[in-house]
């Protein structure tokens, strides 16, 4: 199969657990691109912490960010597609997090807002620094100059499991998805990695059978099932593996490299 669009999740897929990009993955991606494929990173991260990875690989094109809520053209650094949320509809979730001491952040395409940004703990500061983000103080909804596209709650595994169970009982107008063991995200009801990838492929005239996608977590399932070839990493939960067509090696074993060699680069 001639894959024209390759969609890669970032954390737990493209990068090792230490957040490093291996030379093996980088070289295989460049080889795939040289054969005519276009790479798009499809991640729960925002554009600010995703674009440097593309630049590190010397690639242009697009990044699908915030779990599909925002697609950005790297050349212009402009939003070309997004799913704005009803920000005021998030107030009950904000209230719940504040009442229960659960950390949360509110994301616009390029902005990140939290409570008391000037009082972050060193641990919290380190978490945001790791992905090149500088949180700002969350203002009143009416003062935000850009649409809200994602709301994220953070906590230990037990806290997030309980939070997901609780919020699943609410009559929510939002799409809720786990983007990691310690993260629970809310977005517009139509936003997902799969839908954003479908819309990008359609805009470029690329059929779904010519799309290959790789991911490792629940927020990747929609793009794995949309793509003509959906590949789960070996470090994926069993439900994610079940949704995929193939399973490759883990992210720490350069599963991206091995899958690209098997299905793209090594195909004659």
Helix content: 25-40%
CATH top level of the largest domain is Alpha Beta
CATH topology of the largest domain: Rossmann fold
Q: Strand pairing plus helix content: what structural class?
A: alpha/beta
Number of domains: 2
Q: How do the helices and strands follow one another from N- to C-terminus?
A: EHEHEEEHEEHEEHEEHEHEHEH
* Count of separate DSSP helical elements: 9
**CATH homologous group name of the largest domain:** HAD superfamily/HAD-like
Share in β-strands: 15-25%
Read across the widest sheet, the strand sequence of neighbours is 5-4-3-2-1-12-13-14
Distance between the termini: 10 Å
If you compute it from the alpha carbons, what radius of gyration comes out, rounded to the nearest whole angstrom? 18 Å
Strand segment count: 14
Mean pLDDT: 93
Uncertain regions: pLDDT < 50 for 5+ in a row?
Answer: none
Largest sheet: 8 strands, mixed
User: Any idea what the shape is?
Assistant: globular
Can you tell me the CATH architecture of the largest domain?
Answer: 3-Layer(aba) Sandwich
């Amino acid at each position: 199969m001639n894959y024209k669009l390759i969609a890669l999740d970032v954390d737990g897929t493209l990068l090792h657990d230490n957040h490093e990009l291996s030379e093996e993955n980088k070289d295989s991606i460049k080889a795939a691109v040289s054969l005519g494929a276009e790479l798009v990173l499809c991640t729960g991260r925002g554009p600010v912490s995703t674009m440097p990875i593309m630049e590190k690989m010397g690639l242009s094109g697009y990044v699908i960010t915030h779990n599909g809520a925002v697609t950005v053209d790297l050349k212009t650094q402009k939003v070309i597609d997004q799913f704005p949320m009803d920000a005021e509809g998030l107030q009950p979730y904000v209230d719940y997090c504040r009442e229960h001491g659960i950390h949360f952040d509110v994301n616009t395409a390029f902005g990140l807002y939290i409570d008391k940004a000037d009082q972050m703990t060193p641990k919290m500061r380190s978490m945001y620094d790791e992905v090149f983000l500088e949180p700002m103080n969350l203002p009143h909804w009416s003062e935000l100059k850009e649409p809200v596209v994602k709301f994220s709650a953070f906590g230990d595994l037990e806290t997030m499991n309980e939070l997901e169970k609780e919020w699943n009982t609410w009559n929510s107008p939002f799409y809720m998805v786990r983007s990691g063991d310690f993260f629970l995200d809310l977005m517009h009801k139509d936003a997902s990695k799969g839908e954003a990838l479908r819309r990008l492929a359609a805009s470029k005239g690329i059929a779904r059978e010519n799309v290959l996608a790789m991911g490792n977590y629940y927020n990747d399932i929609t793009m794995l099932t949309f793509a003509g070839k959906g590949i789960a990493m070996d470090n994926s939960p069993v439900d994610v593996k079940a949704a995929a067509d193939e399973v490759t090696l883990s992210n720490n074993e350069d599963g991206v490299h091995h899958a690209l060699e098997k299905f793209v680069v090594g195909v004659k």
